[in-house]
Amino acid sequence: MSNIIEINNLSFSYEEGSKTLDGVSFVVEEGSYVTLIGHNGSGKSTLAKVISGLVDDFTGEVKVFGLDVDRKNIKEIRAKLGLVFQNPDNQFVGSTVRDDMAFGLENRCIPTEEMNPIIEKFAAEAGMSEFLDTAPENLSGGQKQRVAIAGILSMSPDLIIYDEATSMLDPVGKKDILRLTLKLKEENPKLTVFSITHDVEEAWHADKVLVLNKGHLVLEGTPKEVFSHSDELEKIHLEAPFIVSLIKALRNNGINVPDNISSEEELEDYLCR
Amino acid sequence: MSIVFSNVFHTYGLKSPFAFNALDDVNLTLEEGKFIAIVGRTGSGKSTLVQHMNALLKPTQGKVVINEWINSSDKKERTKKLAGLRKDVGMVFQFPEYQLFEDSVIKDVAFGPMNFGVKEKEATEFAKEALSRVGLDESFYERSPFQLSGGEKRKVAIAGILAMSPKILVVDEPTAGLDPQASKEMMSLFRTVLESGTTIILVSHDMDIVAEYADEVIVMESGQVKKQCKPEELFGIALQEYSLDKPHTYAFAESLRQKGIDIQSKSLKNVNELALAIKEKLNG
Amino acid sequence: MASFSLGKYVPFKTPIHKMDPRVKVAALIFLMVAVFLSYGSYTMTFTVMGALALLILILMLVSKTSILKFLKSLKSLWFMIIFLLIIYIVMPRTTGSLTPAFQIKGYQFYWESFLDAGRILLRLVMMIALSMILTSTTAPLDLTFALEWYMTPFKLIGFPAHIIAMTISLALRFIPTILEDVDRIMKAQTSRGVDFEHGGFFKKIKAIISMIIPLFVSAFVRSDELANAMECRGYDPNGKRTRYKKLSFRVGDFFALLFVACVLAGSIYITASGFDLYALLGVSVL
Fold this sequence. Notes:
The structure holds 3 protein chains of 3 kinds.
Chain A: E1 3-12, E2 21-29, E3 33-37, H1 44-51, E4 59-64, E5 67-68, H2 74-78, E6 81-84, H3 97-107, H4 112-125, H5 141-153, E7 159-163, H6 171-187, E8 192-197, H7 200-204, E9 208-213, E10 216-221, H8 223-228, H9 230-235, H10 242-252, H11 264-272
Parallel strand pairs in A: 3-8, 3-9, 6-7, 7-8
Antiparallel strand pairs in A: 1-2, 1-4, 4-5, 9-10
Helix pairs in contact in A: 3-4, 3-5, 4-5, 5-6
Chain B: E1 3-12, E2 20-30, E3 35-39, H1 46-51, E4 61-66, E5 69-72, H2 83-88, E6 89-92, H3 105-115, H4 120-133, H5 150-162, E7 168-172, H6 180-195, E8 199-203, H7 207-213, E9 216-221, E10 224-229, H8 231-235, H9 248-258, H10 271-283
Parallel strand pairs in B: 3-8, 3-9, 6-7, 7-8
Antiparallel strand pairs in B: 1-2, 1-4, 4-5, 9-10
Helix pairs in contact in B: 3-4, 3-5, 4-5
Chain C: H1 15-18, H2 21-36, H3 42-62, H4 67-75, H5 78-90, E1 100-104, E2 107-110, H6 111-137, H7 140-151, H8 161-191, H9 201-232, H10 251-273, H11 277-281
Antiparallel strand pairs in C: 1-2
Helix pairs in contact in C: 2-6, 2-10, 3-6, 5-6, 7-8, 8-9
């Protein structure tokens, strides 16, 4: 399996003296769903900007699709990379869903007559077919993010990056986007998703979790591995997913839940046995 | 300070073909000293409801009585000067960091009290006290609010409302966009505000927060109050009819019930209460 | 906000809605020129303008432009109308002959003043009606495309027509979002005791500042994030792009254009030749 993102000893600072990112190294493999968690100000969003070429003058090595992220390669990288940003309003360019999806296609010089079939196909994939002619002010935050995802899908990307894509959504919207992401991953196993988030429930569904604190990568592993370090996570003020906290609380109450339990269903079955 | 809604209607686009009842005959009594959550999906009338509490909106029919203040559709009945009401009912909007405008934190926080006639010196004292309540120390006083982090900005905005020493604090989605740690801090701040005697009215989509903090829940749907009860009473029943999600703890209890462990009707504010309820059931 | 929505696009499916926006823009200009030409004698002028007004009324009915909204928009212009009337009546024109009408307190009024004022008023009203027909039958984005198309020749001298068109369409896209911001900020500041309606000069200034600054901050954040998002979606202002919306010129558009051109040609003929229907019929006129 090849590495879609490869980061080696990355450091970055906005102002001299304080490093926003300090010696960060990790890889994201093709076809995986990787989440990066950390609280506000941990350097998460800066990392997204570095990977998508929105800031330069970092030190270290940043490779996407095997190409160094620099002025020369950025166009080629962006052709295969889609970003979903935090604020659903500020990435909606068109005056309707259809127009917004067309914006990306226009930029890629897709012939006009091919646009409508593409738009309709990917709007359906993101569950937005019935809203094609709706204006953004009549859509919920979650629906706008779906449009952003649909727009990205229409570019047939190899990598989707979420830069806190769900942090402004309500819990229903959050779940909705997570469900959509998991569905897309299932349909296209080669698609890589790199999600920068502070939603630990989302992280729980990923293949790999990276934990960033004050510019340092402090933990890395499967969700189960990472969230088993509950003391370390607590020290950097990160919560555990519901299931992990519940197992911990049960153990504190003398119910010795075995280690191999990793889903709510397994836990229910264990308790009801 | 209690709030009483009697037969309140609020119609947008009155006398036009697009007329739409955002509030449809609301009768509601909110008692003082409680932590009250208002839930319901987007467009159910929650925001319209709370904006009647400090007279940002006026009923198109009916009246809202907030202690001595009367916000009525009838001009003769309505209290003449409603500005003082806004001091007593503090309103924190969604993403309140976008209301900051002064060049220093302390000035911005003192802005509210000064608008209500408090002298600058005293207002500054109120501001300092409010800032310490939200956990911002002296080093923040002279900084520009625009150079703070998102979470700090929100704290400044909330301090700006607390400095008016409201008797009722209305907060609309105060944790939106915050990370879990900052959300927790924010909610425990409201709890201390509650303990100091201020009524808290929370508008939220986050049922986990509602379950953990609220004493009472009001369910809104299509402009009407559908239910007013304790959280455990609401979350113990099937919620699909209100298209609301269950909090994690109650959802888990529901799955357990289907598999034979019935811990329904208990208060399940958080994982600890859930774990305790499960333990009692298993041992007893 | 209410007055803002007066000329808003209403998505009916009338023949005028379906017209090519470029043709509509051209038709608007042609008809406006016709409205502003002068047609010799007053009787002739009002006859031709009456005919044009009838045409515009038919266009309004065909395009389902709301007459009620039109009248409302006139209502918001009453100040300007009265101002114009006063200007024309108090300051009669200095050329040509004047017919005394009546005197009030020694001040002489002339019939021509009233007729001139009436003419300019009629022109103004017709101009507003025409613009309303255009904006209520054409989606803002289509209008932007049409304007860009007309600016295309200037691209040869380096005029950034496409960038201007993109800017306009983004502005149109963000108007509702920014109006929401205004509403939210005003309510938030009102809750902090700001009174936007009453209070002295300094209080008013402070109130406005408390709204403007947060609005700018929010708009800057939005534009910054939007620029990033557009860049990441592959937008290059100087790069090659294809077009989703193709403007199509149909047979109907041709006839519409032909008809409007005939109207304009007729008007120009009347003006240039000094044609007077009433003189021809031997009726004596003003």
